[in-house]
Specification:
single chain, mainly alpha, rod-shaped
């Protein structure tokens, strides 16, 4: 039975979450005041609380963050990369600027940095190109 395995493997985390979210003492299971079915119902409910449940975090480190935390990290990474590319395209001395690193996510190995190779046109090439567009 999965409930028994969770109780055996994650007893401290389960006890903490049962007290915090439901006001239920896990010791009541041995006192005869709590059934395995009710513990199973509580565990199923805890599985829907990523970013808040100690039990869920112990079972899978990636659940330390909620979905909104992952979305915010993704937005932040995209903004940093966008700013980097804009600066790289518009500034003159950008050889010493490094590409920003993404925010580390829980439960994921740190990614290997991938260099961004950008090749920009010279001002003369850009002026020539825009002149050709203007003559269309």
């Amino acid at each position: 039975m999965a409930v028994v395995r969770v109780i055996q493997d994650y007893q401290d985390e389960l006890e903490a979450d049962l007290l915090e979210f439901f006001g239920v003492d896990l010791l009541d299971l041995w006192r005869g005041r709590l059934s395995l079915r009710r513990v199973g119902v509580c565990i199923n409910s805890l599985m829907k609380k990523p970013g808040r449940s100690t039990l869920l975090e112990a079972m899978d480190e990636r659940t330390r963050w909620s979905e909104s935390d992952y979305l915010l990290a993704r937005i932040s990474d995209a903004l940093e990369l966008s700013n980097f590319l804009f600066y790289k395209a518009n500034a003159e001395d950008t050889e010493d600027i490094e590409q920003p690193e993404p925010i580390p996510r829980p439960g994921q190995p740190e990614p290997e940095p991938q260099p961004v190779e950008t090749q920009f046109s010279t001002p003369a090439e850009l002026s020539n190109f825009l002149g050709q567009l203007n003559s269309l």
